[in-house]
Amino acid sequence: MEVIENLIKFEIVKSNYQATMVQSAVLGFPRIGGQRELKKVTESYWKGGVSTEDLLTKGKELRAHNWKLQKEAGVDVIASNDFSFYDQVLDLSLLFNAIPERYTKFDLAPIDILFAMGRGLQRKATETTAAVDVTALEMVKWFDSNYHYVRPTFSHATEFKLNTAAGVKPVDEYLEAKALGIETRPVIVGPVSYLFLGKADKDSLDLEPISLLDKVLPVYKELLSKLKAAGATQVQIDEPILVLDLPQEVQDKFAVAYKELASADVPELIFTTYFGDVRPNLAALKDLPVSGFHFDFVRGAEQFDEVVDALIVGTNKTLSVGIVDGRNIWKNDFSKSTALISKAIEKVGADKVVVATSSSLLHTPVDLENEKKLDATIKDWFSFATQKVDEVVTLAKNASGEDVSQKFAANAASIKSRKESSITTNPKVQERMATINEALSTRKSPFPERLAVQQTKYNLPLFPTTTIGSFPQTKDIRINRNKFAKGELSAEDYDAFIRSEIDLVVKFQEEVGLDVLVHGEPERNDMVQYFGEQLDGYAFTTNGWVQSYGSRYVRPPVIVGDVSRPKAMTVKESVYAQSITSKPMKGMLTGPVTCLRWSFPRDDVSQKVQSLQLGLALRDEVQDLEAAGITVIQVDEPAIREGLPLRAGKERSDYLNWAAQSFRVATSGVENSTQIHSHFCYSDLDPNHIKALDADVVSIEFSKKDDANYIQEFSNYPNHIGLGLFDIHSPRIPSKEEFISRIEEILKVYPAEKFWVNPDCGLKTRGWEEVRASLTNMVEAAKYFREKSA
């Protein structure tokens, strides 16, 4: 019956709009390649395995593939300049010459400046080249996604201009597509968002980046004029900050910026926002001289009437309806999307409506057809980037009156299958959820009482040293894990191999002199996937990779049903590691909010429900670790800030409450003597959010922070804290003196008796040579301060 009803709806739309063509648009496509080709060539380039020409050629091949795929699928508006070797915001900084002086004093090619800004660079002198030693720019989350962007860094000396040393990327890539016979719409980050998302360099802390608008606008005008001269008729200009709480001063800058841009000979501008609701900033958009607006109606459906009535109705502007989810992998519900598209057509006319992805598809895996092992029933519920392209085209064709009834019928059947499946529901989990109360999420005693017990038990020195969890994932580890997965290595042989790796890591840490050890996580493929594979309620892909930053890709598992833990997940390895050392061994878990946020979550139940279910599953693991003698337990929550709703208000306060409760549900069922750690990386954190977790010790990414005020924010943090001292995403090795200098700055505002010494994050992506040198210098710095305090 439901299938028939959807077909009837289709016929209604077909009869109403068959005379007018509704266009389709994709705001951006994943750049990584279906088999991670970009990762492979980039990392090979960093190692000296391929030339610059090889790197650039592979990029060109990937761009051509993506454009052709969309063209052949029937997409009307295809994005260009959505490709990057590292990060699209970093690309703009390089193009606009927003390059801090520390990168320009070396004789580096543009592509190497880009990578140095993104990941740092440390290179010894040779007969022909000078030594290079430079840290990376700060990297933070892109709004509430798991993508990271490199934050633009400005100073009073910043001189904006088109840096044409390597061409003009948006123009070059537009012409590249045109040479293939494909017309594209270049995409660039808009001027207000670009500045607002940036920061002042450490020598210009009095600088408000938004004050640079007048200086950067001429460069935008020059770029846009070049695009028009090249033949571009439209440009997608992204201003995503409109989903944030913006000061009035920043809101006012939109009128200033776009009036100035419109004064030049530039292409039509399609003003694009995504990831939320723009209504609190709606006044900033009134009467902007742009040709159209794009809104995200997946994550902000409730804004539809108000924004369309205020900005589109009665004008000649285009309405781009972001209706196919660019952030998740669930199949689009055509019946619901058609209803909204029909409403848009009724309001503004079919000739002014574009059916689009809600955002760039950067945040989704490339192609579902690469998944050969997924359960057929579950696979039918999914849609990856390639399939989302087809969804956009199908919805646009339907709105134009074309016959796509077979696709609509298949879509309705998929939606019905998922809704009625027993896979999604576990009555025992739902019964257990009813037991959650305040007592279940509260430690037995407050922190001061726990601290006294823990100090007696562990007797750690001042400035205790530790790492965040993982150690290098070597080629040997990956080969043996792959063999085990394929059945080419027995469980007994694989366990023996893992124990040998743990032996190596534990011995190494004892030699270096660390105080609280980890087992190194050689058995783990990913900090979320590893747990998801052992939890009921998850599904997994083999090629569902998405970019997190640079060449760091993740393969998020998918929450398809109620979550529970059938058996212990980490106890065996942790107990073995503790058996070979007398030093405390940390049990390592990923927290409930991070397991949720770094998975593709369900969209049929609330994220609160999913997070609390994960908290209960992890509670069982924490208690099993404690019972097995592992009494230092780290439950990482790097994604807790990422999940924070983008605007202040009830939704945000509710989130903070259930996120903290989920963590405490997982960690509160232990004795006072068990020391609970947590870790946070690459987020702007509020100490109050961390305080609500009531962890005994927290570690925070800090090495690329250069704002003394950030340290000050944590000066009154009541529990113990480790502010990360070196950037684990960079190959450079800090000296002992650099560590000492960093710690001295921290100790000006943070008490020594509460301070732990640790890296920013896990060491999984680094090589052993880098790890040994960096940790040795870090431990030596801790010893220096112990001796100084004696």
What key phrases describe this protein's structure?
8-stranded parallel barrel, globular, single chain, TIM Barrel, alpha/beta, 2 domains, 5-stranded parallel β-sheet, 790 residues
Domains (count) = 2
State the separation between the terminal residues, measured CA to CA.
79 Å
Low-confidence stretches: 1-19
Strand content: 5-15%
**Overall pLDDT:** 93
Helix content: 40-55%
Looking at the structure, what is the overall shape? Answer: globular
Number of contiguous helices: 28
Q: Can you name the CATH architecture of the largest domain?
A: Alpha-Beta Barrel
Largest sheet: 8 strands, parallel, barrel
Radius of gyration: 27 Å
Query: What fold name stands as the CATH topology of the largest domain?
Result: TIM Barrel
Structural class: alpha/beta
